[in-house]
Amino acid sequence: MPNNRSLDRQRKLGGTVGVIVLAFGLGYHFFPSLFHAAPLQPERSVAVATGGGAPQVAVPDERATDELNAGPPLTLAPTAVIAARLKRGTPALPRQLTPDPPKLRALLDRADKALAEGRLADAKEGAAALFLAAAKAKPDSRRAARGVIDVRARLIAQTERDITLGNAEDATVQLAALRTLPASEQDVAHLEASLATLAQVRPLLARAAGLLQQGRADQPRGRSALDIYRQVQQLDPHNAVAEQGVLDVQRVVLDRALAAVAQNDFAGADKVLAAAQAIRPGSQQWHDVRARIAGMRSSRAEGVLMQARSALDAGNIALARSLAAQVRTLDPQFAGLADFAQRIADAEVYAGHKPGQVFTDRYVDLPGQSPAMVVIPTGTFLMGAADDGNRHAAELPQHRVTVARGFAMARSAITVGQFREFVRVSGYVPDSVRLGGASVYDERSGVMRDEGRATWKDDYAARRAADNLPVVNLSWNDAKAYADWLSQRTGKPYRLPSEAEFAYALRGGTQTRYWWGDGTPTSRVENLTGAKDRSPSGRRWSHAFHDYGDGYWGPAPVMSFAANPFGLYDMGGNVSEWVADCWHDNFVHAPGDGSAWLNPGCSVHVLRGGSWGSSPEQARSAWRQGANADVRSGRVGFRVIRGL
Q: Do 383 and 485 fall within a single domain?
């Protein structure tokens, strides 16, 4: 059994240990920094710039750490961050048996102050020397051991940073201090190798910076700053100064692209942009400059296109075409360019109008305007009938005609009211008045007969005609006189249509027997001879469209029925119409360009289109007939076209 003296010693020792444990617990709770590394600060980035001299360091926003590959400025993590990372996984601190004596604490305070002030490698008052001395003086001092670990991590981080920035002098000093610390052999060997590489690349970097200042950024090939920076990157792939130098070279090249744009040389700018992209693919500065050039290109293209529109509006098609070519060179896909090209084409072919557009021309010397005109699209069609054994010789041979010149055609035949205005204003005497009479319909016999008192003022049966009926009882001479007068009144080229133009407009893009199809129409499309039609006395047609009726015996008011695909009315019915061509028995040697086929002094001209009294055979799109120029008939009228 222990004696009383032994028990007293055990009690004192137990009390002492209890006090130490309690002090340790309170210290851990209220002063955790004595037992743990200080909390890591948010990582900040340091920008590196090379202006041809020594690198300069600036601390930007924390967000810069995510922009290492986004373009200048290049960034590096702070030494505090690197050091904190290096301390991860370090050996555990020693188990401290006794408190640090006051003299040691004073030494450690000096070491902490040196560490806080960044004095790591001073020979006597540096943090490395002070913490190492404290650790030797008391090997179980946790504070000293922790200080050695902190200094070692900071020295490694600072040395790496100095080497990265090309600061060999400071890196050598930091490395000497690191050699004195335990467990640093591998890090020292690695840093010495990096320092040796730095000694190799420093003169190269200095030379590259000098070339950059001389304007030899990427030229001449093989002897430029870019070539040397590439050489440095081969020796040291992570060299920050070389990376920044490459970005500086790219910036110089990008400036050349902007200079080319300032001279309106967008093609040259594109080539320079491609060269810059090859220097540092995907850099933010390259994307920024490319976006600027794209905006300037778009602005320039829009300005040139506005000039082109103004030129076209002024009627200067050649200038408009030249300016449009400039826009196409700037940007082949520029918005609005395709539409403008179509406007130029329309201006060349349709004088600025669009196919299907309806317009009128005002008289230049008195109140009034032309008939409503429809712009006919240009194109190619087969004129005449196919030789299937059932066609008339006059409709052969079927041949291809290209209507390349734009023209507009009156939507309907000229009306009585329109012709009346012509006679009143011009004083013209129509042939039905000058020569007397016309061929009109006789209800008693059901056939056409000559009536000496019938004039253009009368309808198909020699009765007074309403103004909205197509004018009939007119000769070819009367029709041409009206077209000539209209040209004088408007200052525009009005005339009678050529046979090819009329046939093309009649078909409206179709190649069927009639413009509406191959047989009896299923709706009221034209004023035709229908089996359901009745004359005032109840007569019927002997040869008519089966099961068809339009409600008229004789001409109907113009535009009473459907328009054909080109927007023209009454082309296949109502009244047959005079055209400009002389009559030829067939289409052998007929022109293929849509022009009129004329012979000097000819007296027989062509009639096209069916009438209210035409048989289904005569209502075909291919049907044609010749008539003397002075013939007047209650089945014949006319319409005009205007050249564009």
A: yes
Same domain, 337 and 456: no
User: Kindly report the CA angle at 586 between 581 and 591, in degrees rounded to 5?
Assistant: 55
Q: What is the CATH number of the domain that holds 487?
A: 3.90.1580.10
| 225 vs 231: CA distance, rounded Å | 10
- Pair 637, 438: CB distance under 8 Å: no
Expressed in angstroms, the distance from the first to the final Cα of the chain is 135
Packing angle between helix 185-213 and helix 240-262, nearest 10 degrees? Answer: 20
d(CA 610, CA 239): 91
Secondary structure letter of residue 408 according to DSSP: E
Total Cβ atoms within 10 A of residue 189 = 10
Provide the 10 A C-beta neighbour count for residue 267.
Answer: 10
Chain-centre distance for alpha carbon 623: 49
Alpha-carbon span 164 to 194, nearest angstrom: 9
Q: Residue 427: inside a domain, yes or no?
A: yes
| 634, two tokens | 């209650």
- Chain position carrying tokens 């090379």: 50
Q: Of the residues 350, 384, 412, which one is the last residue of a structural domain?
A: 350
Same domain, 458 and 311: no
Beta-carbon count within 10 A of 354 CB: 11
Tell me: do 425 and 465 sit in the same domain: yes
- The reply to whether 345 and 377 lie within a common domain is no
Residue 146 three-state SS: helix
Q: Are 320 and 453 contained in the same domain? A: no
Note the pTM of the prediction, 2 decimals: 0.60
CA dist 342 and 312 (Å) reads 12
Nearest CA to 179 out of 171, 188, 190, 170 is that of: 188
Q: What are the average pLDDT values for consecutive 10-residue runs of the chain, which has 644 residues? A: 50 47 42 40 35 36 34 51 56 84 95 94 92 93 94 92 85 92 91 86 92 94 94 90 95 96 94 96 96 95 95 92 94 92 88 92 96 97 87 94 96 98 98 97 96 98 98 98 98 98 98 96 97 97 96 98 98 98 97 97 97 97 98 98 95
Q: What own/partner pairs with CB < 8 Å and gap ≥ 24 does 235-239 have? A: 235/197, 235/200, 235/201, 235/204, 236/197, 236/198, 236/201, 238/164, 239/164, 239/201, 239/205
Count CA atoms closer than 13 A to 36's CA, side-chain side.
9
Helix axis angle, 142-164 to 79-86, nearest 10°: 130
| Domain co-membership, 419 together with 522 | yes
Domain range spanning residue 321?
Answer: 296-350
Nearest Cα residue to 529 out of 642, 401, 618, 604: 618
The radius of gyration of the chain's CA atoms, rounded to the nearest angstrom, is 51
439 plus 551 within the same structural domain: yes
Tell me, yes or no, whether 263 lies in a domain: no
